Amino acid sequence: MVAQRAGRVAPAPHRRVDPHLLELDRLGRPCGCLRLEAERPVLEPEPRTSLLDLGPRPPAKPARVATQRIDQFLFGQGDTFQTDNAMRTLTAGGLFGMGPGAGTRKFGLPEPHTDYIFSVIGEEFGLIACLAIALLYLTIIARVLVKLLEEDSPFAILAAAGLVIQFGLQALINMAVNVQIAPSKGMTLPFISYGGSSMLALSIGMGLLLAFTRRNPYLTRSPYVVKWSGEQLTT
User: Fold this and answer.
1) What is the domain count for the chain?
2) Is 22 domain-assigned?
3) In the chain, fewer beta carbons within 10 Å around the N or the C end?
């Protein structure tokens, strides 16, 4: 009261701040603000805008970078240069494209031969070619799932279903990134994107898929195959 009447503001009492109460970012800098109270300092957390950040906040987050990337894409707060450029490249060719090798927007993409090959196809061969590729992937997935309806082995059903779902999800994620539905993930388009390791992994997976679903149509037609029905043979 005396300090206020004299026209001066009484200084706030100095309190020692525990460094463990500060929340640090990836570079080790404090990213929260402290509020000093009469008893002890209290950390005021930053406002939560993430759909994945629902639990209590620990002092340090190993997955903070991944959470920030997802938040920036969902709320439009980050850099979306790659997905925006991929969408512009995909629609630049129209329905029938500019012709093989005639695309120019592909040179502005960061990885036009792997991650964004779907956009390059849309620019040079048109949206009809992109639709045909998507239908081809859908046909492969549907054919395998229909084939599994005739399978009796639980192991073959689970293994083949897992392989074909993995194949379909990889194609779906790559196409979703190119059409600006999902954030950039760095996932190749199956059997189209450049890359020896991706081609090798996909070839092994499809080989296993064919092995799990193969059948011999002549096995039941052979006269040399005898099926035992449990009854004794009589002469």
Assistant:
1) 2
2) yes
3) C
How far apart CA 64 and CA 216 sit, in angstroms, is: 52
In this predicted model, what pLDDT tens digit does every residue of 122-137 receive, in sequence order? 999 999 999 999 999 9
In a domain, 54, yes or no: no
Length of the chain: 235
CA dist., res. 228 & res. 221, Å (int): 16
Yes or no: say if 189 and 174 are a contact pair by the CB < 8 Å rule: yes
Give the per-residue pLDDT at 163.
Answer: 94
Q: What crossing angle do the helices spanning 127-148 and 117-125 adopt, rounded to 10°?
A: 120
Q: Which of 123, 127, 140 is nearest to 191 (CA)?
A: 140
Mean pLDDT over 153-176 rounds to 93
Q: Find tokens 């701040």 and name the residue.
A: 17
Report the amino acid identity of residue 196: G
Q: CA 182 to CA 115: how far, in whole Å?
A: 13
Single-letter residue type at 228: W
Q: Which tokens in the block code for residue 7?
A: 């026209």
The residue segments making up the domain with residue 28 are 1-43
Contact 132, 212 (CB under 8 A): no
* Amino acid symbol at 84: D
Paired sense of beta strands 41-44 and 33-36, if any: antiparallel
Domain co-membership, 27 together with 105: no
DSSP states along 47-111: PP--SS--SPPPS--TTHHHHHHHHHHHHT-S--HHHHHHHHHHHHTTTT-S-TT--SGGGGSS-
Beta strands in the chain (DSSP E): 33-36, 41-44
Tokens of 164: 């074909």
